[in-house]
């Protein structure tokens, strides 16, 4: 299998420094599935091309043991010729320094967007050319895909699922290599090594900064992890905000249906129709899940409005979705957002465009880094506090400290707490029994458990509490989320 990377940046031979491979030498590297050769078909000041050629030992793939062995049981197969996970491994082994964005000789080039072209001689894509465009165009590449016939001498046999893929963009070399490293295995249905938790970490590490924004991120994760639902749920729950995790689990399940129906060439009209129906169901579920967190935020905002709160806390503010809604309420004079994650606060600043916010509006908002299990005088003197889907991320023994911090020391007049309803988990078909909706949840309470805890809390600290469901309510298991409204004065009218 062959990959070429070329540039017209001048002097173009600087590509050799970035790849850490001398254009005047042929270099060979031993891999556990064969050999990788690096050479330069062209190396001038105007244009430079580096080639990575893999010589895969097909016999060793069948006879070998350990990680080098795939599920192949025939000596004749497409592994030596078609881009696959072998190429992704070779990129990391041979171009690892460039992949990680390091170059001592030319450090300025590492962060410089260059005119780059990458061409993969043969890559599989049974889903067709459109899927290649959907994978690479959102990342800024122009995509050229040439499909190959099954046999040039027998055109009546039709077209093969193999393409020559050419990508062009002005970007950093490390970005190009990273995108290839992740997306080539996405197109490979015969990944040659064991898929486990380590692969989730690899995907999240290499996908940082771009995968979470990719419109096909769920399908990418699902394919990269070889259609393993538990790993896909894990990856998506860590990649996207917590409130979207149930959406991710449902979509991973639906993708299995879509794959099964589109995996065979020449699928029937009935299968294509079923695929369209499955895609429609996925989209409907996506919209339903997406609106759930909006319902939580809206419910909290309505309580704040009804109480006429002038100073409001958003505890566990995350990336600032509720903060944005609170800022739109002109009656609110000051808002404080607190989160234990410094990274989340940075994202909140970007989401809210604090750098461009008018001075008077900016004065209404304070973002602070802190934990809800330690007394913090910055939280005192506020009228209302919103704690939206936060308590389930705490270890239960630490809840006692949280209770004192919020209800005894901060002591706002109104507190709004929402948390998942564990009884509703049975409605998520792909959520295994006994597991939580998000990997960071320490517990999930039933309605009775939440109400017992809330009433005891209210009694200890001199509050009254009322409860309300959030989301579509089922007659047997209730709503997906539940809300407790604590008040030091008269309770809300039902």
TrEMBL record:
Location of the Methyltransferase type domain: 313-405
Give the keywords, sorted: Magnesium, Metal-binding, Methyltransferase, RNA-binding, RNA-mediated gene silencing, S-adenosyl-L-methionine, Transferase
Positions with biased composition (Acidic residues): 242-263
Regions of compositional bias (Low complexity) in chain numbering: 264-279
What EC number is given for this enzyme?
Answer: 2.1.1.386
Q: Which GO terms describe its molecular function?
A: metal ion binding; RNA binding; small RNA 2'-O-methyltransferase activity
Which cofactors are reported in the record for this sequence?
Mg(2+)
| Pfam families per the UniProt record, alphabetical | Hen1_L, Methyltransf_12
Give an example GO biological process.
RNA methylation
Quote the Gene3D superfamilies the UniProt record gives: Hen1, N-terminal domain, Vaccinia Virus protein VP39
For this protein, the record's InterPro entries field holds: 3'-RNA_MeTfrase_Hen1_bac, Hen1, Hen1_N, Hen1_N_sf, Methyltransf_12, SAM-dependent_MTases_sf
- Catalytic reaction equation(s): small RNA 3'-end nucleotide + S-adenosyl-L-methionine = small RNA 3'-end 2'-O-methylnucleotide + S-adenosyl-L-homocysteine + H(+)
Hen1 N-terminal domain boundaries: 1-239
Could you say which enzyme class this protein belongs to? transferase
Residues of the region (Disordered) are 239-287
Source domain of life: Bacteria
Which NCBIfam families does this entry report, sorted A to Z?
Answer: bacter_Hen1
Q: Which family would the database say this protein is a member of? A: Belongs to the methyltransferase superfamily. HEN1 family.
Full protein name: Small RNA 2'-O-methyltransferase
Please name the source species: Dictyobacter aurantiacus
